[in-house]
Amino acid sequence: MKISFSEQDEQFRQQVADWMAANLCGEFETLRFRGGPGDEHMYPHERKAWERKLAEGGWTCVGWAPEHGGKGLSINQQVIFHEEYARAGGPGRMGHIGEGLAGPTIAAFGSTEQQRRFLPGIVNGTDFWCQGYSEPGAGSDLANVKTRASLNEQGDNWLINGQKVWTSLAHESDWCFVIARTEPGSVGHRGLSFLLVPMAQPGISVRPIEQLTGTSEFNEVFFDDARTDASNIIGQPGDGWKIAMALLGFERGVSTLGQQMQFHNELNEIIAVAKANGAARDPVLRQRLAEAWCGLRVMRYNSLRMLSGAQDGSLRKEATIYKLFWSSWHAALGKLAMDVLGPEAELLEAAPYQLTRLQSLYLFSRADTLYGGSNEIQRNIIAERALGMPREPRLRP
């Protein structure tokens, strides 16, 4: 693990900062610090245009291998890019699911033909992806997936039936990678497949789920004989669980450093409010602010440690604690923001009563300990996979 950067790396940092300063302006000025968690509904079309701007500058898929259209940056330089992007107020990435999850998975497990077909659209910022994992009865327990897929009589299309839920930005996506059960009668991890499914078709309907914040970045997605070409399966039928787990490893990748810089921006805003309204003089709140800063540093050092390993989707033991740590920390930060605001936390200035950024942070962070794997499931993963403790008893069907 390295916690410092070379002179060459710092020169690269300046290059990124200069590009962001020169381009995140004009028509894109309104996007600064927008589109993050709890704010993903804002400016989707403008943020898609920003993705194309990033692509023009060569700043999409910076960690991908050059043969797949990426920059092939070192881990150090990827960390620097994501940190400087967030520091400059770069908007939430509309291409995150494609760049961080779908693309690396296709690169690792897809055929050459699939790589040639799907990766360029992600690199160019023209194709956008969503994730078809969670279902009403299969959230953190992904092995309980009920969505089914079977080949039609001609054998040239998969027919998909079922429901996915909590699908971020499904209404803005061109493609969805779907975990479906392709072996009749299979249960648990077996009989699952990883399918790439076009969203613009009659067999798919997307329904928004309204949040506490009044926004609807999450959706339900219904598949009613939805189709995808028989060739749009990654790996072989039955490989879905293995590929799904590798994808979750990519999710714990280098972009987590950018997420932490967004957290840093939020903490700075809370500190600024505390100084302005006098809350910083309260010794208890001052201690909590200090603890939040320390927690963020611990998060950074653990991320650098887990990124020191292989970048093939496999998870080191250090990576198993990341989701539990950041989600609990972020939920506590949302509560701290409300306590620093005091009575203003419960007030909206005037119609149309738009939430402030810190109010949205608080409400949205309530979900952090659920999506992406609930804290209870994360503790099981740490106990069983990282510490080698006895597995929790399972009830047989």
UniProtKB/TrEMBL annotation:
Keyword check for Disulfide bond: no
Q: Does the keyword Flavoprotein apply?
A: yes
Cofactor(s) required, per the database record: FAD
Acyl-CoA dehydrogenase/oxidase C-terminal domain spans which residues? 238-386
- Specify the domain of life of the species encoding this protein: Bacteria
Q: Which Gene3D superfamilies match?
A: Acyl-CoA dehydrogenase/oxidase, N-terminal domain, Butyryl-CoA Dehydrogenase, subunit A, domain 2, Butyryl-CoA Dehydrogenase, subunit A, domain 3
Q: Which family does it belong to?
A: Belongs to the acyl-CoA dehydrogenase family.
Report what the protein is called. Acyl-CoA dehydrogenase family protein
The species is Pseudomonas fontis
